[in-house]
Write the structure tokens for this entry.
Amino acid sequence: MKRKILLLTTAVLLCMANTFAQGGTTGPLTWNLNNGALTISGNGAMPNYEEKGAPWYDYWESIDTVIILNGVTTIGNYAFYYCFNLYSITIPTSVISIGRSAFYYCEWLHLTTIPNSVKSIGSFAFAYCKALTSISIPNGITTIEEETFSGCEALTSATIPTSVKSIGKGAFCRTGFTSIAIPNSVTNISDYAFGHCLYLNSISIPNSVTNIADYLFDNCRSLTSITIPKSVTSIGSFAFNGCISLTSITNLNPEPVKISGGEFSDVNISECTLRVPASAVSVYKKANVWKEFKIEGIEVGVETIETNPLKIYPNPTTRELIIDNGQLTITSVEIYDVMGKMQKSRKPEEQKGEWNLDISHLSKGLYFVEIQTKTGNVVRKVVKE
């Protein structure tokens, strides 16, 4: 009897060992899984896998931590595909690329840092990581690939560096953003890039972009305002489809882009204010579809240039604005009302950093603050209460 108990106990222990301690090799690397922690070590590139093809996939439900040691140079395609209990991962500075669908549907992943050594991130790499709240894209990434962060419903903050030139199809589709800053380095934004971002309420398209793609803001139901730079010469089909809260558009192009109406499907056009250069008001009032908006003129030459260091607060304000221009140099500040009439002008000596602007004399309402710097002009909307 004792012998049977001993054999049974030994079998159970062996079973537990097989469950909680596994390992092997994959390409030039070694992997070891122990009590939910997967450690990958060695020198060289992790192989690319097919769906469910990684050697540790049989234990995908038990993996909650991944530790990649210095020396590993890539994270392969589908490496941690559907490891939905994965909570944390350590990526060393030796890693230069993250493969396609590498963390697809790791819904509990709380990733904190992607090192700046990473120069490429594959499509769907972090798709449906539903616990992911913020991401800082490494400086050196030039393209945010197709659906890289799609379905990241809790994602409220993303830092896009000036190295990025292209944002792929559905890259941020179905995330939790309320706003996002797109740098002027971006020249191409593909279809659905921000589709179904249900909490996105405002966005400025950089003046490096010439085309607003099909369904770009499809069903962004909280979007209330948008700034379209004068560089935009085409607006794709259903670009603002389902943007039922859209009430304000600032369009800086003096020439109305030809549209059919489907671009603004489900938008209450007759109650949406369209602000255009003052000299172009009469042209917009004759242009197909555009003429149906509530058209107002703004000062000629006012442009929006996205400059990340710039901050204006508090907004709304009752008395003064604080302008923090970081390391840029302010050469002048002008404030315009919604009709394009200048209300205040200040030309300080060349100045960097934070300073105050008294607007207590202005009436309550919406204003445009144009700040001229040595690198370009910046326009921000402020509300005086």
Q: What stands out?
A: DSSP finds two helices and 28 strands in the chain. Confidence is low (pLDDT under 50) at residues 2-19, 300-308. Helices lie at 2-20, 281-284.
